[in-house]
Amino acid sequence: MLTFTKSRNVAGSTEILQLMRASAGGGYEPYVDGFFGDESLLCETWPGEDRSAVAELPAAWHDAEAGKVAIAFPLATIDSLAPGTYSASLHLADRSAHLAAFLVEIVDGPGESIARPKYGSLKDLRNELPWIDTLHDPQSDQSGFADALADARDWADVIILSHVRTTGRYDPRRFGGLGTGNEEIREALAADKLMLDTPNGRKIVKACVYKSLAQILRRCVGSENVPTDLLQLSRYYEAKADATIITCLAEIDADDDGFPEHLVNLGVTATR
């Protein structure tokens, strides 16, 4: 079915809709010479099934003799709709005739939300699994699987915090960050102080990539035209993420001097 995609926070351009009708020989043909141009039109949108209409789109004749109608998408109307796909019906205002049906897809546009930070990138995902792009869903995977990578960073940060020792005197020879509190480490992680360009840091990135792939693959189970069993591969990467993260040493450069002020061994259970 014909679909018009419009972004929130941006006024949508007017679309010209060609009315169609069943032809004598089967199929459809342009609906022409059936209108005079003085008929009032009504275009309603609703979230599918028998739910009530949630918005009206301004509709006017563009060329009545040619059966063409101009559908407008005002900013206020677009912003009143939550992201999703809506059914739309164009008919005469007195409801004496149905003229056309189409879909309106509302997607998020430029907003104020801050992108969640992540360890790793789309390039890292591709390096590990070259065909990962075939699983990309524009609705849930905008900006290169950003949400899956951000979720993996949250997972790694929680593990790092759970291994922080909060008593004793800091001794760089004893991995575990002695003398550092969880809040201090939490703030350092939020400020991107985890060193990612060292061998240890790159290993943490690898673990996050594995975790992200596990989530993406699990979500896409049932997809067609993929080269392998996604559930089995998801379990493989989940196990690989867990096995990798426990071999990591989190190096946190709190004062940006190029050296880690805090070391947290993720393979050692923290003691209090």
Question: What does the model show?
Answer:
By secondary structure, the protein is of the alpha+beta class. The chain folds into 2 domains: 3-107, Immunoglobulin-like, CATH 2.60.40; 122-265, no CATH class. Helix content is 29%, strand content 24%. It has helices at 75-79, 122-128, 142-162, 182-190, 199-219, 230-245, and strands at 3-7, 12-18, 20-22, 28-30, 41-46, 55-57, 59-63, 68-73, 84-92, 98-107, 249-252, 262-265. The strands form 4 sheets. Strands 1-10-9-5-6 form a 5-stranded mixed β-sheet. The chain has a 3-stranded antiparallel β-sheet with strand order 2-8-7. A two-stranded antiparallel sheet has the order 3-4. A hairpin with a 4-residue loop joins strand 7 (59-63) and strand 8. The model is unreliable at 168-180 (pLDDT under 50).
Backbone shape: elongated
Query: How many domain modules?
Result: 2
Q: What's the helix count?
A: 6
Described by strand count, sense and barrel closure, the largest sheet is: 5 strands, mixed
In total, how many beta strands? 12
Order of helices and strands: EEEEEEEEHEEHHHHHEE
Compact overview of the structure:
The chain is α+β, with helices and mostly antiparallel strands. It is 29% helix and 24% strand. Strand 9 and strand 10 (98-107) form a beta hairpin.
Keywords for this entry:
272 residues; alpha+beta; Immunoglobulin-like; 2 domains; 5-stranded mixed beta sheet; 3-stranded antiparallel beta sheet; elongated
Task: Describe how the helices and strands are arranged.
Elements: E1 3-7, E2 12-18, E3 20-22, E4 28-30, E5 41-46, E6 55-57, E7 59-63, E8 68-73, H1 75-79, E9 84-92, E10 98-107, H2 122-128, H3 142-162, H4 182-190, H5 199-219, H6 230-245, E11 249-252, E12 262-265
